[in-house]
Fold this protein.
Amino acid sequence: MSGGGNWFSEAQLQARRPVWNALSWMYLDTEVSEDRDWRIRVLSASPYSIDELDTIHRDEVRPVCLPNLFDVAGVWEGFNADWLEQAIRNHKRGGENWPASLMARVHRSKAAFKEEPEWMATRQGIIALRAQASEPA
């Protein structure tokens, strides 16, 4: 990561944007399991290992998107990509707002993160799809 508060290179941003978008869909105020197959395909195609995806989910997307689940009029049609990127970059710089900061602290433990049902189902799907893709024809 480079200095000056710019935590991501352009190449990192290009790789992360679709991952951020796919992961953010788990925090919409709607039935998110319906989009699981799409999310699995996007995340499986990313250059990140399953452990890296765990970290991106836990440390980048979840802290900024989780508050949506507690908003009376939460986002349900998808987060604005520019907003999502800026919110994640602000969070990584330590410029997060206090509700997001509090939610991130409350939910930062790996135990709570690992037990999140939609992420666990998505995670298992990624592992299965990648294993299937690596099998000889």
